[in-house]
Amino acid sequence: MKTKPANISQEDxxxxxxxxxxxxxxxDMKPINEYPELQFLLKRGRPPLESPKKAVNIRxxxxxxxxxxxxxxxxxxxxxxxxxxxxxxxxxA
Length: 93
Prior knowledge:
It is a single chain. By secondary structure, the protein is mainly α. The protein contains 4 helices and no strands. It is elongated, with a radius of gyration of 26 Å.
């Protein structure tokens, strides 16, 4: 028997309590892959990106890194955007 979490009232806990499935009910069940409308339940996480980012190690000058980090969350994305802009300006993209 499961233990009731402290943040759920006994009334709510009892309201969702259901009896165990019978052998007949278990026998009538089909695998989820036989329900096309439920296939989305089999896929977990984010959908794969067309062009995912790659992890790299890069050495940056301390002042450059400090400047980007001082702008707060998202500093790595801003470095990526700055590099992309540089490529555009220098006809490499």
